[in-house]
Amino acid sequence: MEKRILTCIGCPMGCELTVELDGETVTSISGYTCKRGKIYGEKEVTHPTRIVTTTVRIARGAAPVVPVKTKEDIPKDKIFQCIRELKNVTVQAPVRAGEAVLKNVAGTGVDVIAVKTVGE
Q1: pLDDT confidence of residue 1
Q2: Which residues are paired to 60 by β-bridges?
Q3: What pLDDT, on the 0 to 100 scale, is given for residue 120?
Q4: pLDDT tens digits, the chain, 120 residues: what are they?
Q5: Which of 2, 32, 83, 115 is buried most, with the most CB atoms less than 10 Å from its CB?
Q6: DSSP secondary structure string, 10-46?
Q7: How many other CB atoms sit within 10 Å of the CB of residue 68?
Q8: 1 exposure class (CB count in 10 Å sphere: 0-12, 13-18, 19+)
Q9: Residue 68 in contact with residue 116, Cβ under 8 Å?
Q10: Residue 69: how many other CB atoms lie within 10 Å
Q11: Other CB atoms closer than 10 Å to residue 35's CB: what's the count?
C-alpha cells in the first residue's frame, strides 16, 4: 500500500490530502474539506492534468505577444510538447479573446486560445 501526501489546488483552502493507493487503484482519500478535494486527489494520482498558460508572438499587433492558455486542462506529460508547439506559432493581428490560436495541441484534442484581445 502506497500513501501520497498532496496539497489540494481545487479551491483556495489548500487542504493537505492523504491518498492511499493499492497499485494503480485509489483505496482512500482523506483531508479534503470539499467535494473538489476528493476529485482532485484521485485525479492527481491517477491522471494528472494542468492548464497551460504562456504567450505567443503576434505579427503586426499593438503588442509583440498575446497571452494564451489551453481551453481545458491537458495531461501533465503533454505540457512540454505543448510548449514546443507554441514556440513555432505566430498569429496575425487582430486577435480576439477566446479565439483559437492552435487547435488540438500535442494531439490532446484541446485548443489553445487567446485570453486577451490584441488589435493592430
Answers
A1: 86
A2: none
A3: 86
A4: 899 999 999 899 999 999 999 998 999 999 999 999 999 999 999 999 999 999 999 999 999 999 999 999 999 999 999 999 999 999 999 999 999 999 999 999 999 999 999 998
A5: 32
A6: SSTT-PEEEEEEETTEEEEEES-SSHHHHHHHHHHHH
A7: 26
A8: exposed
A9: no
A10: 13
A11: 10
- By three-state DSSP, how is residue 118 classified? strand
- One-letter identity of residue 31: G
Residue listed under C-alpha cell 498575446: 66
Please give the grid coordinates belonging to residue 90. 505566430
